[in-house]
Amino acid sequence: MIDTLDDLDVEGTTVGIRVDINSPIADDGGLADDARLQAHVDTLSELLERGGRVAVLAHQGRPGGDDFVSLESHADRLAELLGRPVDYVDANFSVAAREAVDALENGDCVVLENTRFYSEEYMEFEPERAAETHLVQGLAPSLDVYVNDAFAAAHRSQPSLVGFPTVLPGYAGRVMESELDVLGSIEETPEPRIYVLGGAKVSDSIDVAWSVLEKGLADHVLTAGVVGNVFLIADGVDLGDASSDFIYEQGYWDEIDRASDLLDAYGDSIALPRDVAVERDGERYEIGINALPPENEEAAMDIGSSTLEYYERLLEGAGTVILNGPAGVFEEDAFETGTRRLYGMATDVDTSIVGGGDTASALRRLGVEGFSHVSTGGGAALRMLTAEPLPAVTALENGPRQQQPADD
Ligand SMILES: Nc1ncnc2c1ncn2[C@@H]1O[C@H](COP(=O)(O)OP(=O)(O)OP(=O)(O)O)[C@@H](O)[C@H]1O
Ligand SMILES: O=C(O)[C@H](O)COP(=O)(O)O
């Protein structure tokens, strides 16, 4: 059982809140998409309007990545979205950070620096060891409680996610609460239940497919994206060097054997693309799987029309559809068709749940609306769907509880 903001007396409380505002970054270093910041507006507004003193912890990108930047732009955008001043300090556990947090008054908000600018944050620890890191030991004394609203990062056992709730009373923010409610009760959704696994997180997707097929949660698993390409190769289709090389370079070559084992065990419940889209003379060109030329040099970048018609028939009559990852390289106009059409079909299903940061960006870019639930998480959502525990959620469940005020 996890306490929520309904269980917290916020007035005058200094709250360290972990959010996931990890966002695409534009070439100028600013935010290219603010969806994840928007997702946390309700939680942050509630804490501030209830008189909380709010210190925001978050990560951005990964060390070495082009999107590994400061959170200053995030703080500026949060101020616009919240309609109130939001301070920023380029520290997260130093004297400057503590002074900024200690200076907060009721209704104030400060964004601390990208947690991953600090080396221990990009390591995974058991919660007790995470609690001993400099980040937690340096900042926790300035906080009264910890709120975790970062569902999309909850599969990471990193100090800002599992260390603080080990030493402070922990609460779920409104995003975390909603995600756990929806993704934690898939077995209660209407049947037949269809999973659509696309995108590029091949190993996570195969984990989900095994889990939901073994547990009888899925009546069908439809594959698309890089996941679909891996299953096609596992099924003996020669997609050509371009697609195979991409899969190898992404480190997923070993997943082909896992996909083959899954097809052996549950092949009747797994649908593979029947045609793919490639680039030919700068245009989208669709080719049937059985018509691929030998030594094909054109990479399979999307699913084609025959596949979409096939998947549409499978989706008819579904009670629930759960989707993760785009159907193709949606960032390119020529290859957004699969994601647009497949995800559009999904919104006609009674209960439609979609997950993934890139997927959510795709839906906004493509104007696809009408899902029952759009998860902020990609890997975290997939982990939930395999009923695997999320370290950050477990840390909230096992951490100290705030001493309830003694009954008078
Ligand atoms: N056939 C394909 N070939 C190569 N890349 C593909 C293909 N289909 C989809 N992709 C890529 O997959 C990426 C998204 O996959 P991913 O699994 O990361 O989605 P997500 O789970 O929504 O994202 P996130 O990891 O942010 O949660 C996109 O960048 C897209 O270009
Ligand atoms: O975008 C995400 O999937 C989350 O923010 C987690 O980011 P990570 O994969 O870099 O830990």
UniProtKB/TrEMBL annotation:
Its main location: cytoplasm. The keyword Hydrolase does not apply. It comes from the Archaea. Pathway: Carbohydrate degradation; glycolysis; pyruvate from D-glyceraldehyde 3-phosphate: step 2/5. One of its GO terms (cellular component) is cytosol. Keywords: ATP-binding, Cytoplasm, Glycolysis, Kinase, Nucleotide-binding, Transferase. (2R)-3-phosphoglycerate binds at R36, R116, R156. One of its GO terms (molecular function) is phosphoglycerate kinase activity. Its EC number is 2.7.2.3. Gene3D superfamilies: Phosphoglycerate kinase, N-terminal domain (3.40.50.1260). GO terms for biological process: gluconeogenesis; glycolytic process. ATP binds at E331, G356, G357, D358, T359. SUPFAM superfamilies: Phosphoglycerate kinase. Pfam families: PGK. Belongs to the phosphoglycerate kinase family. Monomer. This is Phosphoglycerate kinase. It comes from Natronolimnohabitans innermongolicus JCM 12255.
